[in-house]
Known about the structure:
four-stranded parallel β-sheet; 20% helix
Amino acid sequence: MKYAIAFWSVAIAIAIFLFPVAAIAGSSSLIRAYDDEVISSKDFAGQNLQEAEFAGADLKSADFSDTDLRGAVFNGCSLIDANFHGANFGNGIAYLSNFKNADLTEAIFTEALMLRSVFDNAKIEGADFSFAILDRLQQKQLCQRASGVNSSTGIATKDSLGC
């Protein structure tokens, strides 16, 4: 019996190695993708955009105020002068994106991954960056102008940035 189990275990391992089963990707029908070619409006205020994906999109002056962006992705996007007032970007990803002069007041960025993104002159009063991952230089620059307490989470912006 012991040898039979060992034989079948080896036989199954060899079969899997020689004849691998193709992986089937999960459905992404719930994920909305936006790129520069399909964005016809820059008014996303108050919408539910959970897990939406924006890649290389020009979102200059876009309105994301009070938008649910939990788990959303901004990859290489221009978000210059964008309005994120009161938005929830928890667990989101913003990689290589430009938030220059963006209004991030009262926004929630908890556990967001925001590497290689810039926040020059962004307004951050009352924003919550708790457990967010930022480039060290950006974190230092944000600390210089951090103020206020987020009205939803009760967390001070300076504390959330680890200033």
